[in-house]
Design a protein that fits this description.
Belongs to the serpin family. This is Serpin domain-containing protein. The chain is α/β, with parallel strands linked by helices and about 220 residues long. It has one domain (about 5-195): 2-Layer Sandwich (Antithrombin, Chain I, domain 2). It is about 35% helix and about 20% strand. The protein is built from 6 helices and 6 strands. The strands form 2 sheets. A 4-stranded mixed β-sheet has the order 1-4-2-3, with helices on both faces. It has a two-stranded antiparallel ribbon with strand order 5-6. Strand 5 (about 210) and strand 6 (about 220) form a beta hairpin. It is globular, with a radius of gyration of 19 Å. It starts with 6 loop residues before the first strand and ends with a strand.
Length: about 220
């Protein structure tokens, strides 16, 4: 599958209710460390274009999107994806698949809803090996849409994301993000996470303090 002359849109959505800090062991080069490093790099790029907006980003979501594209990449593109993932050859699949199963396992006390999909232009063929690899490694669905009707295509993608996250992520894409003439593939990752804080805020230690917003406005906030 060649991407050189095509428009490829990668979308990663994250709904976060609560996060617990697990701590990091700096001496161990784990998947989590690789993913966090990649996530921080992408985060820095995103916030540089949105200096006044709140930004939340899932490193695992970013890694999943790149992992989904990897089976269809060749040459320099493949080298760059592997470099970003900090792996050699096909290393990411085993770790990404393992983490995905761990996150959605019933034994996990946190609530995690995760969904991956490839939405391709109707009539745009993709190799079966590419689709099979993504289904096996990322539980990734594949659907055909008509991007020449961007409003309808965006609505269908958003409905799919909403259904997979039980309404927690009702909208992910806008119609103006789709180029009717060029868009051939939209790669989507959506994650909803609800968990308990490892160290909760104590009510008796919470006080109203001045808070400066991105537009230099002052408010009182706990």
């Amino acid at each position: 599958m060649k991407m050189k002359h095509l428009s490829l849109l990668c979308l990663c959505a994250l709904a976060l209710t609560a996060v617990g800090h697990k701590g990091v062991q700096p001496q161990a080069l784990t998947y989590g460390e690789r993913g966090s490093d990649l996530g921080i790099q992408v985060f820095q790029q995103v916030v540089s274009t949105k200096p006044l907006e709140n930004v939340v980003l899932s490193p695992h979501g970013v890694a999943s999107i790149l992992g989904m594209l990897l089976p269809g990449a060749h040459g320099e593109t493949k080298k760059q994806i592997l470099s970003g993932l900090r792996y050699k050859k096909n290393g990411p699949y085993r770790m990404l698949k393992k983490l995905h199963k761990t996150l959605i396992a019933k034994s996990n006390q946190d609530i995690v809803l995760m969904a991956n999909a490839l939405f391709r232009q109707r009539g745009f063929s993709m190799e079966e090996a590419f689709l099979s690899s993504n289904k096996a490694n990322f539980q990734c669905e594949s659907r055909a849409l008509d991007f020449s009707s961007p409003n309808a295509a965006a609505e269908e993608i958003n409905q799919w994301v909403s259904n997979k996250t039980k309404g927690h992520i009702p909208s992910l894409i806008k119609a103006d993000m789709l180029d009717p003439a060029l868009t051939r593939l939209v790669a989507v990752n959506a994650i909803y996470f609800k968990g308990l804080w490892k160290s909760r805020f104590q009510l008796e230690n919470t006080k109203m303090r001045p808070f400066t917003g991105g537009t230099a406005t002052f408010t009182k906030s706990p």
